[in-house]
Amino acid sequence: KTPKPSWWKDHGIPEIDPSTSSSLFDIVFGNKSMNDRDDYTYNNMGSNKFCGVIESPTPIIFLKDLDLIKNVLIKDFDHFTDRRHPFPIADKTAVFSKNLGDLQGDEWKNVRQSVSPTFTTGKMRKMMEHFNSVGQEWIEMLQSKAKESSTGAAIIDANSCINQYTIEVIANAVFGMNTGTIQNPNSIFAQKAARIANMDKITDMIKMNLSPRYPKIFTMLGIEMFDKEGIQFFTNILRQSLEARLKGEVIRNDFQQLLIDARKGVLKGIGSDELDIFEKDAEIKSSSINKEKYLTDDIIIAQSLVFFLAGLTGVSNTIAFAAYALALQPDIQERLREEVGKVVKEDGSVDYDDLTQLTYLDMVVCEVLRKFPGMFRLERVCEKDYHDTESGLFVPKKGVVIIPVHSIHNDPKYYEYPEKFYPEHFTPEKKAERSPYAFQAFGVGPRNCIGMRFALIESKAVIAKLVHYFRIEPTEKTPSPLQGRVMGALPFIPADLELKLISLK
Ligand code: HEM
């Protein structure tokens, strides 16, 4: 039952009603987005550190103050370990329902701690092999395309073209497989992956907007977010591959192998010098839990599947938005080209250490992720009644807390030109001055994005190669100024985004 509009006020908590800015109908059918509502709430709550909002049928606490956000996401994390289920998985016996994003409570904690050592810097350094070899094949395919065209330029559909790279990288990195997708964008593997990753139908929009609110209805009706047949296809491949590895028939440099090694307990955990600022604050430590017990075959397959899906959508979007932004701002592209020219080798490869030293590349990628973060809002569910005496915040057990990432990333208090694509927001000096909690593209705290290091290095490697080998330009059809689409809490590039690539080598 939906609480009445004054529910929060009646509980002594300041309340904003964002439905005056956009109706649920507008949001569900894509005329407006959750960002419009969140911005309305954020801008109308004045100096309040938090306020109450009703998102039928749930009363929600909306946080604005960065210190309070830090408390919820890190200091008092034990109250806020879970999210609502992000995507409906109607069949709770399905292997995929055991993925980290969906697991809750102690089960999540044990699996997360067991899986974390697969993402150390050392492991990411080894993954460079895939980014370099697949990246080079992709660049050569684009060069041939440009050569064959009468204008000497390749016109690409950004979504499908970048997916060719990310599908092949993630197939190598998770499944240990070459799928031939770069040469044949219509390979069976690519078709099945695209059916899962492409979420551009009106039904996807409705599912994304309504499923967090009405999970029981979705479960009752058996509605799933992802294409069931596709998920089954990849589950079967992963199971066969796991069996072969357990028999000792195959050993590969990929996540499935790392997860098997993690189960055996032979992986070194993340060293304290590798922890990022949020992890340091959270003091995440590898514990001596029984990994054998938690990393069962099904759990390994479910994590491989979620790494595969996250590797497809999140990374593709980041690379595509970067290419799009660079096409619209040739001055930024030129400066980046100059910087990457110093580290791309004759054979097109890039070293992990060189890549992580490139300051301007980092500024560009951070700015892409400020404007188009992994999720426009984060959420946590409160596991036990929570009181913050300093701010007066009270969240009851099972209460939902929202962190409005889009509004924070567009607050002029933190970013001087929020509307612009402006990498200068991320100079090392500005980064050092600003609260790190004003940038939440990968989430924050122990429940942040486990694949952050992988995603950043994969995106940087291919963006560096792209500007080294091509000048990226808009076509007549490329929308300007820079814009995206919002589905639920996720950003996507404009449908059918077209870009022109002019060979430089
Ligand atoms: C640029 C690409 C990516 C972005 C921007 C991104 C962003 C995010 C965000 C915002 C969250 C939620 C964090 C929170 O609630 O605090 C998340 C969760 C997650 N991400 Fe990513 N992600 C990306 C790529 C990846 C990749 C490549 C992988 C795996 C290889 C991955 C695996 C996951 C998993 C498993 C979770 C759930 C973690 C948990 O609940 O413990 N992501 N990601």
What does this structure look like?
The protein has 505 residues and is an alpha+beta fold. It has a single domain (7-503), classed as Cytochrome p450 (Orthogonal Bundle). The protein has helices spanning 7-10, 24-28, 34-44, 66-75, 105-115, 121-148, 158-175, 188-197, 202-210, 215-221, 228-246, 255-264, 277-282, 291-294, 297-328, 330-341, 352-356, 359-371, 405-409, 428-433, 452-469; strands at 50-55, 58-63, 153-157, 378-381, 386-388, 393-395, 400-403, 470-474, 485-487, 490-492, 498-503. The strands form four sheets. A four-stranded mixed sheet has the order 1-2-7-4. α15 runs parallel beside α21. Bound molecules: protoporphyrin IX containing FE (HEM).
Structure summary:
This protein is α+β, with helices and mostly antiparallel strands. The protein has a single domain (7-503), classed as Cytochrome P450 (Cytochrome p450, Orthogonal Bundle). The chain has 21 helices and 11 strands.
Which CATH-level-2 architecture? Answer: Orthogonal Bundle
The CATH top-level class label = Mainly Alpha
- Count of extended strands: 11
> Low-confidence runs (pLDDT<50, min 5 residues)?
281-286
Main pleated sheet:
4 strands, mixed
Could you name the key traits of this structure?
505 residues; alpha+beta; Cytochrome p450; four-stranded mixed beta sheet; 11 strands; globular; iron; Cyt_P450; Cyt_P450_E_grp-I; metal-binding
